[in-house]
TrEMBL record:
<dbReference type="Pfam" id="PF13677">
    <property type="entry name" value="MotB_plug"/>
</dbReference>
<feature type="region of interest" description="Disordered">
    <location>
        <begin position="200"/>
        <end position="220"/>
    </location>
</feature>
<dbReference type="GO" id="GO:0005886">
    <property type="term" value="C:plasma membrane"/>
</dbReference>
<feature type="region of interest" description="Disordered">
    <location>
        <begin position="307"/>
        <end position="327"/>
    </location>
</feature>
<keyword id="KW-0472">Membrane</keyword>
<feature type="transmembrane region" description="Helical">
    <location>
        <begin position="28"/>
        <end position="47"/>
    </location>
</feature>
<comment type="similarity">
    <text>Belongs to the MotB family.</text>
</comment>
<dbReference type="InterPro" id="IPR050330">
    <property type="entry name" value="Bact_OuterMem_StrucFunc"/>
</dbReference>
<keyword id="KW-0812">Transmembrane</keyword>
<protein>
    <submittedName>
        <fullName>Chemotaxis protein MotB (Motility protein B)</fullName>
    </submittedName>
</protein>
<keyword id="KW-1133">Transmembrane helix</keyword>
<feature type="compositionally biased region" description="Polar residues">
    <location>
        <begin position="201"/>
        <end position="220"/>
    </location>
</feature>
<dbReference type="InterPro" id="IPR006665">
    <property type="entry name" value="OmpA-like"/>
</dbReference>
<dbReference type="Pfam" id="PF00691">
    <property type="entry name" value="OmpA"/>
</dbReference>
<keyword id="KW-0175">Coiled coil</keyword>
<keyword id="KW-1003">Cell membrane</keyword>
<feature type="compositionally biased region" description="Low complexity">
    <location>
        <begin position="309"/>
        <end position="327"/>
    </location>
</feature>
Amino acid sequence: MADEGLRPIIVKRIKKSGGGHHGGAWKIAYADFVTAMMAFFLLMWLLGSTTKGNLQGIADYFSTPLKVAMAGGSGSGDATSVIKGGGKDMTRIDGQQKKGENLTPTKSLNLKDAEAELERQEMNRLKSLKERIEEAIDSIPSLRQYKNQLLLDITSEGLRIQIVDEKNRPMFALSKADLQPYTKLILHEIAKTLNDIPNRISLSGHTDATPYSSGEKSYSNWELSSDRANASRRELIAGGMEEAKMLRVVGLSSAVLFDQKDPLNPINRRISIIVMNKKTEDSITKANRTLDVVSEATAKQTVENGVNPSVAAQPAPLAATPAGAQK
């Protein structure tokens, strides 16, 4: 019995191997495969959602990353680039900017506001010209006595300067286009001021409603008003006005009376000089342009824009021999 108490106790440990010949290594390989697939699909998504320009920028960045980052260009620093960094702004707040690039924000111009500003500046020029002519009339003694015959005002066409007849002081010889000496003096003084602004000139002649004895068949108020307007044009040029500034010379007979209540009033006999604004000048220079209307929509647009392709400036008729009426 004593020997049995001294017998050694043997503990057997059984080592179990449930993984077979490869153990758990397949789990690591599978995790690496899933990670690679996720990276591949992420890359495909990026390539599919990126524009052609950005793709080129990405390619440039990976081919020469230091050059793109230091020198700028269409690449990684662009604010639209998928990849952050590069350029001068690493946070993509401003995006990549080339050296010497103008950082001043571009102003957007409103066409209507610009046109209104141009009209305002033009109106100021015409008002300034009106004031200079009025000062010249007051300061030159030879003109001051004809102040009542010089009428200046601003109209929708521009600055209008009218030289009108008085009962005992006509501008022209009776029934002729021969200017009186004081009329030449007035036109010479006006001519000196017209070159100060770029606006072009329209000149029209007017008569009263007194008819010629021969009526409208031969030499009439139409021919007389045209001849007087052309004589005034020649005198303005002789006084120093540039010939190219004259755009229109017309004779209107008694069609546009100054005194509507009294067609025979001497004040209806006048010369009207208009320093035209841009709008009036364009309406004259564009009058002879043709427009081919090819559809109803085009015709509607033409009417809305106020273009009349049939309008053409017709010169007033000129004739040779005056009759004996008093004008």
